[in-house]
Amino acid sequence: NAGVTQTPKFRILKIGQSMTLQCTQDMNHNYMYWYRQDPGMGLKLIYYSVGAGITDKGEVPNGYNVSRSTTEDFPLRLELAAPSQTSVYFCASSYSGDQPQHFGDGTRLSIL
Amino acid sequence: ILNVEQSPQSLHVQEGDSTNFTCSFPSSNFYALHWYRWETAKSPEALFVMTLNGDEKKKGRISATLNTKEGYSYLYIKGSQPEDSATYLCASTSGTYKYIFGTGTRLKVLA
User: Fold this and answer.
1) CB count, 10 Å around CB of A46?
2) Residues of A with Cβ-Cβ distance to B101 under 8 angstroms
3) Residue to substitute from A9, A30, A43, A47, interface B, most B β-carbons within 10 A
4) Nearest Cβ partner of B93 from A43, A44, A98?
5) CB-based burial, B32-42: b 16+ in 10 Å, e otherwise
6) Inter-chain touch A105–B31, beta carbons under 8 Å
7) Is the separation of the CB atoms in B20 and B73 below 8 Å?
8) CA A105, CA B111: separation in Å to the nearest integer?
């Protein structure tokens, strides 16, 4: 019973590098989300998706891109890494907007 | 209120004390209010989802109430135990289904 799986768990990037944070869920959830958590702050929504082929911006989308080609996968792409993107990233999924979200274990990303 | 606000930011209580926290949220276009428990080095775990004004939910020693007209929810913990130590997050969902999280209340229960 995997739930929401995020890879990698940790990563260090150099400024200007690109990478993709992977997220997959096996609960057949329609809704998927990407958040970032900065020290002393709550969770900020980056992007979300209400189904395959549908994505929309959250509060802090700049510098990120997403795609949702399947129900299971919702990768987050950083094209030109900047120090301001150093954070812990959480992926989550839910069946619908009034159902609880299930979170992955997070990806700790440092950009130097 | 445009954002989700939680108070207090942190508190320490003695084992056995009862405590409560507040979550304030925008009352317009309200869809659902969520409470999560977030232990250090783990990911948030759902406690309650509430949608109707006057809703009350209970799970063991933890309960929550909802007032959608005035835009607030209370989370209560009865007889706090050290294992209750965590950050308690609330999140409001509007008609657009975007979750807006508060910054959380950090609870430390002292043995």
Assistant:
1) 24
2) 35, 42-45
3) A43
4) A98
5) bbbbbbbeeee
6) no
7) no
8) 28
Chain A nearest C-alpha distance from B15 (Å): 25
SS3 letters for chain A?
CCCEEEECCEEEECCCCCEEEEEEECCCCCEEEEEEECCCCCEEEEEEEEECCEEEECCCCCCEEECCCCCCECCEEECCCCHHHCEEEEEEEECCCCCCCEECCCEEEEEC
Please report, as a single letter, which amino acid is at residue A2.
Answer: A
DSSP A59: S
pLDDT tens digits, B5-35: 999 999 999 999 999 999 999 888 888 999 9
Pairing of strands B105-110, B10-14: parallel
pLDDT digits (tens, 9 = 90+) for A101-112: 999 999 999 999
- A4: tokens are 């929401």
